[in-house]
Design a protein that fits this description.
The chain is an alpha/beta fold and 135 residues long. It is built from three helices and eight strands, in the order E-H-E-E-E-H-E-H-E-E-E. 21% of the residues lie in helices and 33% in strands. A hairpin with a 3-residue loop joins strand 6 and strand 7.
Length: 135
């Protein structure tokens, strides 16, 4: 059985967050989605659980981070081209998110970033397979 990854993120308004991420092209698994949680499908074995803040609090004794003033995590997603990187960032901004840095071009890797409606940071990258420096 393949290992699956579930990234759990607290959100203030679950319905609004689902609309935002649908606008970026993501779907949700209805089997694990209800009024307190939504299972966003990134890939076959990668999921983001968007949890209402009360639901998220059931899983941790720690205070929820204010992501508008502090960074909790950088979530990195790859794309198939530079244009695809720019498209998803533009869609995020159009949907109410924001950018928090200018795009960076390192030759072998291009990336840009956005913050979602709750301030979670998403790095979107494209790597040129033939130009990745050797280890």
């Amino acid at each position: 059985m393949a290992t699956k990854i579930f990234v759990n993120l607290p959100v203030k308004d679950l319905d609004q967050s689902m609309v935002f991420f649908r606008g970026l092209g993501f779907d949700f698994n209805p089997q694990f989605t209800d009024e307190t949680a939504a299972c966003m499908v990134i890939a076959d074995d990668i999921f983001v659980m968007l949890l209402t803040e009360p639901k998220f609090s059931e899983f941790t004794p720690k205070q929820i981070c204010d992501t508008h003033t502090s960074t909790e995590v950088l979530i990195a997603l790859s794309r198939d081209s530079r244009e695809a990187v720019d498209r998803i960032v533009a869609a995020a901004v159009a949907g109410g998110g924001s950018t928090y840095r200018e795009p960076k071009d390192h030759g072998f890797m291009y990336y840009h970033a956005f913050s979602d409606l709750d301030g979670h940071n998403w790095e979107v990258i494209y790597m040129e397979p033939d130009t990745v420096p050797p280890a």
